[in-house]
Write a structure and sequence with these properties.
- There is one protein chain.
- The protein is of the alpha/beta class and 295 residues long.
- It folds into two domains: 4-233, Alpha-Beta Complex (Spore Coat Polysaccharide Biosynthesis Protein SpsA, Chain A), CATH 3.90.550.10; 234-286.
- It has helices at residues 14-27, 48-53, 68-76, 97-106, 136-143, 146-149, 184-190, 202-212, 237-255, 262-286; strands at 4-10, 33-40, 57-62, 83-87, 91-94, 111-119, 130-131, 170-172, 174-175, 179-183, 216-227.
- The strands form two sheets. Strands 1, 2, 3, 4, 5, 6, 8, 10 and 11 form a nine-stranded mixed β-sheet that branches. Strands 7-9 form a two-stranded antiparallel ribbon.
- β2, α2 (48-53) and β3 form a beta-alpha-beta unit.
- α9 packs antiparallel against α10.
- The longest helix has 25 residues, at 262-286.
- It is globular and about 55 Å long.
- The chain starts with a strand and ends in a 9-residue tail after the last helix.
- The relative contact order is 0.15.
Length: 295
């Protein structure tokens, strides 16, 4: 029987973590199941009650926050498994979503990564659960709000597949890191998450490297979770805003910079920095916790 390793990186989301773990163990029958929580130096690292409540989960407590990717890799290296799931602590598993995704991924060895339907708490679709790679031509509609004006446009809403219904199983370019399942062989092919991404962007980079290596990425809406988005990032909006836009620059430099013209580079970097300043001004002036348009 296939084994599954679940890695949850926690940072100041402990209030959500208990509900997440409860949903894992009540909604998942896949065995052997190895669940590890990597805490990235949260303000409160007292997990004694959770360790008693969930004796089958392992807790790794870091004394410094070196970033989401570093912590994910730390968890992935803690125990070998046939399949791995990166799961955010502010997620709740619905109706055997993990089991369903394992079965879907296991049936086709050409699929390297699978993601599920991710809902907001009100039941609406969280658009970031299926995405195209944010090449400049694709990202413009999202960054400048055109996707909201034309939500079903193949051109303006391309980034979040607005032109394709959310109930359709489909091969996509990327899925959300809030629920990202992949097979062990993928690590042997492309390696672990890129640790130059402190927060945000690492999931897009991982999916892009997978497809470049010949693997397929799928969105599987027959499995559903609820994601209480940005439970921790809203506590430190200034830092999250910085890392959000810095990740855009890292991603662009890594994948598109070499082939871009000087004009394109200037426009892209100027646009990212203006967006960062705009969001930061809103945070300071209006006490907004908004970070940016979801990757």
């Amino acid at each position: 029987m296939s084994s599954l390793g679940i890695v949850i990186v926690n940072f100041n989301s402990t209030d959500y973590l208990q509900r997440c773990l409860e949903s894992i163990f009540t909604q998942t029958n896949t065995t052997p199941l190895h669940t590890v929580v990597v805490d990235n130096a949260s303000d409160d690292q007292n997990f004694a009650d959770l360790e008693k409540t969930f004796p089958n989960a392992r807790f790794i407590l870091n004394n410094e926050n070196r970033g989401f990717s570093v912590a994910c890799n730390q968890g992935l290296r803690s125990k070998a498994a046939d399949f791995y799931l990166l799961l955010n602590p502010d997620c709740v598993i619905e109706e055997s979503a993990i089991d369903r995704t394992v079965s879907f991924l296991a049936q086709d060895p050409t699929i390297g990564i699978a993601g599920c339907r991710v809902n907001n708490p009100d039941g609406t679709l969280q658009l970031a659960c299926r995405r195209r790679i944010p090449r400049p031509s694709v990202a413009l509609g999202k960054l400048f709000g055109l996707a909201k004006l034309f939500p079903q446009s193949r051109h303006f809403a391309a980034y979040n597949y607005g032109d394709i219904g959310p109930d359709e199983i489909q091969e996509v370019e990327a899925i959300s890191g809030s629920f990202l399942m992949f097979r062990h062989e993928l690590l042997e092919t492309i390696g672990y998450l890129d640790e130059s991404f402190f927060l945000y962007g690492e999931d897009l980079d991982f999916c892009l490297r997978a497809t470049q290596a010949g693997w397929r990425v799928y969105y599987y809406p027959k499995a559903v979770i609820t994601h209480f988005k940005r439970a921790s990032s809203t506590r430190h909006p200034g830092a999250s805003n910085y890392h959000f836009h810095n990740a855009m620059e890292i991603f662009y430099r890594k994948h598109f910079y070499a082939d871009a013209s000087r004009v394109e580079r200037f426009l892209v970097f100027t646009g990212i920095r203006l967006l960062y300043l705009h969001k930061r001004a809103k945070q300071l002036l209006f006490r907004s916790s908004e970070i940016g348009s979801s990757w």
